[in-house]
Every structure is written in C-alpha cells, then in structure tokens.
Amino acid sequence: MSTIDGKSLKNILSGVYFNLDNHKQELNSLNVFPVPDGDTGTNMSLTLKSAYNNLQSVSSDKIGEVVKAFSNGSLMGARGNSGVITSQILRGVAKGIGENETIDVLVLRDIMESACKVAYSAVMQPTEGTILTVIRGAAEFAEENYQKYTDVKEFFKDITEEAARVLDTTPDMLPVLKQAGVVDAGGRGLVVMMEGALNYNNLSNYGEKEEVTVKAPEHNHQSEVSGDIKFGYCTEFLIESENGDYLQFRNKISSLGDCLIVVGGEGLIKTHIHTNNPGKVLEEALKLGQLKDIKIDNMRIQHSHVVMGPEADVYLDPYNNPDETKKYGFVSISTGDGFEKIFEELGVDQVISGGQTMNPSTETILEAVKKINAEDIFILPNNSNIILAAEQAKELSEKNLHILKSKTVPQGVVAMLSFDEDNSVDENFEEMTEALEAVRTAQVTFSVRDTEMDGLKIKKDDFIGIEGGKILATGKKVNKTTLDLLERVVDEEASLLTVYYGCDVEDKIVNELERKLKRVYKDIDVEFIRGGQPLYHYIISVE
Q1: How would you class 162 by CB atoms within 10 Å of its CB: exposed for 0-12, middle for 13-18, buried for 19 or more?
Q2: Contact status, residue 243 vs residue 289, Cβ threshold 8 Å
Q3: Closest-CA residue to 539 (of 408, 404, 351)
Q4: Contact status, residue 38 vs residue 220, Cβ threshold 8 Å
C-alpha cells in the first residue's frame, strides 16, 4: 500500500475507535496514573465515540474533511486527562495531513511529528512514562527511519511496534507504574488505537464483519497503589470563546490544581484540571465566555469504587435491583457531591450531574431512566431549563414517566421528602407538587461583568443574591450579601431555613454565617448542609 485516500481513512479511523472500545476495561484496570480512579479506558472510549459519531456525518471522501471531522468530534467529546490528550494527538494528525489529498510515507512521517508536537504543547507540565512518551517514541522512529520505506502500511506497522516497545519501558520512568506492575494506561490506549488502524478490516463492525472482543482483565491494579489523591475533583468543560486567550487562561488557573490541559480551536477552549476548588476554576472560565459540557467527578470516590469492586455498586445503589420491578423510581438532576449524596439518601435511583450552565440532554435523561426497573418513575429536573428535556424524554420513553416541575434543587429535595410509598401515583404527584411550590429558593453567586439590573449597580466579581429570577442584593462580601438577600426573602410565615453551601466556601465563612443567621432568625429553624455545588456559594431553601 503506497498511499491512503479519504475513503480508506474513514475505515481506518473507525477501526481506531472500535479497537479502543473493545479494550476499554483492560485500560481501566491499568489506570494508576495520574490518579488511580480506573477510568482511562472509559474516557478514551467516550472521546473516540464522539469522534466516530462526528465522522458519520461526513459524506465527502476528501481526506482533509474526514480527518477534521474525526479530530473535531474528539475535542467535543474529550473526557479525562487521557481523552483530552488523545484529542490533541488527533488534532496533530489533522495538522500533519494539512492540504495533502493522500497519505504516503512522507506524509505519515509529518503526521507523527505533528501529533507529538501538538500533544506535548497541550500539557503544561508533561510527565514522561505516559502516553506522551509513547507518541514521542513513535514520532522519533518515524523521523529516523522513513527513508527506508515505500509501503505506508509497512511503515506504520513498524511505527506501532516501536510504540509498543516504548510502552514497555514506561514502568522504568514512573515509580507508581512499577509499584503496580503495569504499563501506562494512556500509552497502552494509544498502542491499541494504532493496532486498530492497522487491523481495521477486522474491526469495522459494519454488520458482516465480526467485532473482535477482548477478555476482561481479571485484576484491577488500583488497589496496589495509594488512594491518597491530592486534588480530588476532575473538572472539565468547554468555553465558547472566539477571542479568549487560552494560554493566559491556562496560566491563570495553573495554581489551582494539577494535570492541567487547556487547548483552543474552532471557537472553543477545552479545559481539564484536577483541583480541590472547581468553583474557582469555573469562575475564571466564565470571564472568557459561555460554558458548556461541564463535568466534575470526585476521584476519591471513583478510586474507592474501583478498589471495592462490584460490591461497591450494590452498596451505593440500594434502591435499584434490576432483578425485580419495584413500584416507584426516581431520577433527579443536581450538581455537587453533597446534593448527590442527599438525593441518594432520599431514595433517588439515578442522580444526573447538571443544572445551571450544564443542562443534561434528553438522551442523558433517557439513559438514566433505562437503568431503573420500576412501574412509575418520577423525574425531578430541578431547573427550569431542564423541564423541556425531561418532558421530551417522557414522550420518547415507553416507561411511565411523571415530570415534577421543580425549578431548583431545594424544591427537588422537599418534593422527595413529601413522597409516601403507600400513596398512589396521582396522590404522590399532587403532594410532591404542592410541596415544591411552597418552597422559595434564594441563591448567592457572583457577577461576571459590570451591569445594572433590577435597579442595582453591579460591578464585576461582586456577589449577587437572587430569588425568583431577580437580583435582590449585591455586595463585596458573600455573607453580607446573603444576609441582605434573606432580609428581602424571609417573611413571617417562614419556619425553616436550609442553607446548602458550595464547594469553594471556606469553613470559617460558613460558620460565621450560621452564627449570624441563628442570631437574626431566633424563631426560625436554621440548618446548614454541604451541597458541594460549584458557582453558587449558597443555595437557600425558605419554607
């Protein structure tokens, strides 16, 4: 094979995805770096699935359009540290092809060099012994040996063998790999992708071809390394920004965590960081533009699940036994590990991460519904922008779905508290609706720009207090703004204040507010609960 054209490249890229997806459990079992959370295979697979889906929308066989679609899809769907780096390797592939109409030996050499360069440039502090080392080894081999080849497939076959050889050396570069007795999971994923490209004729899965399967690993190596994770939240998002300086933004947030990757392209800035303060990262991101596809995972919990094995899922999901149909099931949307725990303790089967600025799709809601084996399922959107997606899910699902029009997370919590297992569906729907309508929700966040609204002059970074969609208070101090807000919201009928504090509010600030509220509202019960939500310092339920 002297050259590769666009039509062949479509099949090759499909093989890349299918082979990686077949090996994702193997990669998960190898995942001990940068944190042992067991999701490298899943993240790389989801990244390539997005790339593959985007590829299916391309009718042209022009090689530039084919590789651009696959690359852009990978950026949009990039998940985790490994997924983002994978998307940058593919971005480098697209750059390496450039204006060429076919891939020959010389172009393949350029592709490997470009893939390595773009991947390294995306990572602020590259670590050797990872996927970066493997792509660099492959690129160096290509540069040093391209003159020996005329057959592009033979050339790529030997490049892949060199990548596998370099992969075997990764434990000598990273002590944590040697301790666990594994090679780097991301590097192994890259080799699997390259092997998929070589063997795409057996991996395309177009109906007539049998998909290759890989035996699931018998052992997860995460238990062999320390679960002491310095920065606990894997935080990812896209910023829609045409003019934002992504390098300046990267420098701005670099002190907030590690495993930082910030890349820009096509009017988007993709960000991945491990941090203990996701809210602060999102605050900085909002200064550049609109946010989308926000994902915040607690890696400490992920690690414990991996180490505990299948038993962990039984423990964490006691309400969902797939072997028996229960009477009622629940789906709730919220953000923050505290709120997730609250809903799980209230009996919610599936908690979807989402809310303001990160609305889950109808498809996401349907996927959650599919996991619940119940006669009737209540859905709590907990945000006015998610109600429509929930109603669309109801139209598309064959299950009996009931949409409670909760517009805030506190409304969802109160609705669940009013649920009675012994009541009928109609009785529960009526009582839960009445309960959520009796709740007023006050929220305290910050302003991303200077503005004047609802008669208030607001400066950028000022705290703002909101209730019912209106800004009722603003100020330079979060607790003072909160007190001013509640003075407008709390009336003589109020009997309970529940304050859910966010992931970035310091304990001393929370304690100070609790003392002041209990002193000001002596005749009202005041409760403080960790919500763990980003963006909003306080979300307050007034009942």
Answers
A1: buried
A2: no
A3: 408
A4: yes
Condensed to tens digits (0 to 9), the pLDDT of residues 165-194 reads 999 999 999 888 888 788 899 999 999 999
Mean pLDDT (the chain, rounded): 84
Most confident residue range from 209-223, 237-251, 386-400, 445-459: 386-400
| Strand duo 374-380 + 326-334: pairing | parallel
513 falls in which pLDDT band (50, 70, 90)?
very high
User: Cα 21 from chain centroid?
Assistant: 18
Torsion angle of the four alpha carbons 81, 83, 85, 88, in this order, in degrees rounded to the nearest 10: -150
Parallel/antiparallel/unpaired status of strands 496-501 and 525-530: parallel
Q: Which residues of 101-139 are buried (b: 16+ CB within 10 A; e: fewer)?
A: eebbbebbbbbbbbbbbbbbebbbeebebbbbbbbbbbb
pLDDT at position 229: 59
Q: d(Cα 160, Cα 445) in Å, to the nearest integer?
A: 50
Where is pLDDT greater, at 196 or 244? 196
Secondary structure (H, E, C), 327-355: EEEEEEEECCHHHHHHHHHCCCCEEEECE
Cβ-in-10-Å burial (0-12, 13-18, 19+) of 51 comes to: buried
Question: Can you tell me the distance from the alpha carbon of 132 to that of 113, in angstroms, rounded to the nearest whole number?
Answer: 12
Q: Rounded to two decimals, what is the model's pTM?
A: 0.52
Half-sphere exposure of 412 (CA within 13 A, CB side): 31
Give the closest residue to 151 by CA, choosing from 103, 113, 195, 115. Answer: 103
Residue corresponding to tokens 């605050």: 283
Count other C-beta atoms under 10 Å from residue 196's C-beta: 26
Per-residue pLDDT tens for 10-24?
999 999 999 999 998
DSSP string, 136-178: HHHHHHHHHHGGG-S-HHHHHHHHHHHHHHHHHTGGGT-HHHH
Select the more confidently predicted residue: 68 or 260.
68
Check residue 221 and give its pLDDT: 44
- Residue 91 has, within 13 A of its CA and on its CB side, a CA count of 24
3-state secondary structure of 528: strand
What tokens does 118 get?
A: 């773009």
Give the residue with greater pLDDT, 212 vs 433.
Answer: 433
Q: d(Cα 458, Cα 309) in Å, to the nearest integer?
A: 50
Q: What is the DSSP annotation of 423-484?
A: S-HHHHHHHHHHHHHT-EEEEEEE-SS-EEETTEEE-TT-EEEEETTEEEEEESSHHHHHHH
Residues 116-129: tens digit of each pLDDT: 999 998 887 788 89
Alpha-carbon span 42 to 33, nearest angstrom: 15
> What pairing do the DSSP bridges indicate for beta strands 463-467 and 470-475?
antiparallel
